[in-house]
Amino acid sequence: MDTKKSSPSSKPSHKQVECTAIYLxxxxxxxxxxxxxxLTITNTSTTTTITITTFSDHPLTFHxxxxxxxxxxxxxxxxxxxxxxxxxxxxxxxxxxxxxSDHQHSKNNNKILCISPRNKSYAFTTDHLPxxxxxxxxxTFIADSFYDYENPWHxxxxxxxxxxxxxxxxxxxxxxxxLFKNGEVVKRVGSWVYNLMxxxxxxEVVLERLExxxxxxxVCFEKVVMMRRGLGGMSGMMRHxxxxxLRSKAWRYCNGSRSRSSSSGNEMIKISLVxxxxxKRGFKDENEVKxxxxxxxDELDGCSFSFIRFTSNMSxxxxxCNS
Length: 323
Hints:
Largest sheet: 8 strands, mixed
Shape: elongated
Strand content: 15-25%
Oligomer: single chain
Number of domains: 2
Distance between the termini: 113 Å
Structural class: alpha/beta
Organism: Dioscorea alata (Purple yam)
Order of helices and strands: HEEEEEEEHEEHEHEHEH
Radius of gyration: 29 Å
Number of strands: 12
Protein name: Nitroreductase C-terminal bacterial protein
Low-confidence stretches: 1-9, 21-51
């Protein structure tokens, strides 16, 4: 039987073309499902779906949160926490970074900040997320400090700048704080520092610890304001306004009351000296210090001086109302 062989140059039939198109479409659809999907952001009160494209074969470039090759706070624009970032004080505000970018940080190019708690590293992305990613919704305040958050001054220095940022940005409140000490996540803060944060927010503080299930390999943040130099670089005018605001909020929180005018009508000046015990923190001659402070205060109309002995059981409001 003669069989007619088709020549290599013969055109494929309409049915062959249709089958090939269906095969390519199916293959593309399968690839699309493997490489693209939307993430679900879960909050305590709401669940929202956002469409962030992810590529499973597109790894992010991570850097150590603490770069030991760079000395802390020696360089004017860089330091060892998130050392790939270079910043400076802006318009009286201390150095800070906003992710994704705002009008003052346009060079950040809408970067999304991601952190790997397991590897103590960070990365940025603009359009994709790796597998096993948790997205924390809302605004997160991130701070790093060379010192701990137990000491009132060091803790306040690390977090107070955020309240100045809130004041300058329509009082936007964070969903959480994420605090670091030299690149290590801080699990708790001192009572005094916590109360100051609570006063500044006007509500309870949520402290993120980056803890959870084992599949939480990478955490990315919907919105971040990050500070790593505390109040360093803040202008005197803005610093004065910040402390005046926190002072007023603390008085209201503690139900304090005080007269701001002396009997002569001049504004009152109240100076309180909080004394601490111990050779390292106490005054060498405490009585002489009190004598000099009181003597100088007496020279001013409406000035009153008091000395407060700090004790471990003194509450935040005890200090506020006695000062």
